[in-house]
Amino acid sequence: SQELEQSPQSLIVQEGKNLTINCTSSKTLYGLYWYKQKYGEGLIFLMMLQKGGEEKSHEKITAKLDEKKQQSSLHITASQPSHAGIYLCGADGLIIQGAQKLVFGQGTRLTINP
Amino acid sequence: DTGVSQNPRHKITKRGQNVTFRCDPISEHNRLYWYRQTLGQGPEFLTYFQNEAQLEKSRLLSDRFSAERPKGSFSTLEIQRTEQGDSAMYLCASSPVRRLAYEKNTEAFFGQGTRLTVV
Predict the structure, then answer these.
(1) pLDDT tens digit string along A5-51?
(2) Calpha distance B39→B56 (Å, rounded)
(3) How far is Cα A30 from Cα B23, in angstroms, rounded to an integer?
(4) How many pairs of residues across A and B have Cβ atoms under 8 Å apart?
(5) Cα distance from B17 to chain A (closest Cα, Å)?
(6) B33, B45, B91 ranked by CB distance to A42: nearest
(7) B45 vs A16, A67, B42, B56, B102, CA distance in Å?
């Protein structure tokens, strides 16, 4: 079965600093999703990557999928308090019949210090 | 608000009691998923529906758990004879169907979750 490993598990950065979160898969990624979760709440979709080498950006967040499609990174530029939360990577566990059953990493808890 | 809605947001119950949670997906989404998330972990897949058909159940879904989606719209997740180990956040998500394997993947939209505490 597919497993996702996120690193680091927690991260504390000073406001304004850049940071990177990594997500490594044990198998080829057919669809890689990044979500953000505030404590005790649901998941908010950030970005989806499918193709090797793909890179997407939204505001100050950039996500990349490596050429081999086994690792993804999430980079935040000039971090702000609003970026604080838990970042989760999720992967499509099945491609048969177009099912979208996500397997998630354990999450990275991001704290932004003012 | 046209997002995924879950009720209740919080539920505290005594061990051995039955509980039921409800999920209202985004109206045009055919697929509905249930996940469970324990503290410090990512969500774990429990089951999913396409319209009213339950197409897959995880081995995490013991006999005490049952999910339904009777008319292909809202879904309920029932836990019978709750145990302390059932304490978790139960998340519901929905997505439109992807008819062909090569079609672009679509993201799942999650609700706010129901936090269950079994005492």
Answers:
(1) 999 999 999 999 999 999 999 888 878 999 999 988 899 999 999 88
(2) 25
(3) 28
(4) 76
(5) 23
(6) B91
(7) 36, 27, 10, 10, 23
pLDDT in tens, B66-109: 999 998 899 999 999 999 999 999 999 998 876 565 556 678 89
Nearest to B42 among A45, A98, A106 (CB): A106
CA distance A72 to A60: 17
Q: Tell me whether B97 touches chain A (CB under 8 Å).
A: yes
Q: What is the pLDDT of residue A96?
A: 47
Phi, psi of A83 (to 5 degrees): -80, -10
**Nearest by Cα to A89 from A112, A66, A59:** A66
Structure tokens at B21: 């949670």
- Collapse the DSSP code of B86 into the 3-class scheme (helix H, G, I; strand E, B; otherwise coil) and give the result: helix
According to the 3-state scheme, what is the secondary structure of A62-73?
A: EEEECCCCCEEE
Q: Does residue A93 belong to the interface with chain B, where contact is any CB pair within 8 Å? A: yes
* CB atoms inside a 10 Å sphere around CB B70: 9
Identify the helix (H) or strand (E) that includes residue A7: strand A4-7
What does the pLDDT read at residue B1?
54
